[in-house]
Design a protein that fits this description.
This protein is of the alpha+beta class. It is built from three helices and seven strands. 27% of the residues lie in helices and 37% in strands. The relative contact order is 0.23.
Length: 139
């Protein structure tokens, strides 16, 4: 089941540098996803906190790669994944005066939970969050 990978492509009316900041800076992550306990840094653990309850950790992992302004890669888990690590990659590419963002989420089918349920839930979640990202970076 390891081939169950989500891939999303989003066109954004903002430079890769601006979009990259929204993927790595704690305060900007909070505008479309969840605030991080600190800015994301390569080789460091991170936690994404509830925007409503800053003491509640929702998602966590380790930042595997930061290549500004082209790529962010981290492991990603949460309680619904029963702490099984998946992998999220954001690739940013300049395109027609804006940014083509490709999000790849791998490893959802390898966990202990129902693979299709996890895939569908994360697919819906990423749609919601990338729509918020579009509003945040373009607003």
């Amino acid at each position: 089941m390891g081939n169950m990978t989500l891939v999303k492509m989003v066109m954004l009316k903002a430079t890769p540098e601006k979009v990259f900041r929204f993927l790595t800076k704690s305060d900007l992550l909070a505008t479309w996803f969840h605030a991080a306990d600190a800015d994301l840094a390569e080789g460091k653990p991170y936690a994404l906190m509830s925007n409503d309850n800053p003491d509640q950790k929702l998602c966590w992992g380790e930042v595997l790669e930061i290549n500004a302004p082209e790529r962010v890669v981290y492991t990603f888990t949460h309680n619904h994944l029963q702490e099984h690590p998946s992998r999220v990659t954001f690739d940013l590419e300049p395109c027609a005066g804006g940014t083509k963002l490709t999000l790849t989420h791998e490893g959802l089918g390898d966990g202990p939970a129902d693979a299709l349920e996890m895939l569908c839930g994360h697919d819906e979640g990423w749609d919601e969050h990338t729509a918020k990202l579009r509003k945040a970076v373009e607003g």
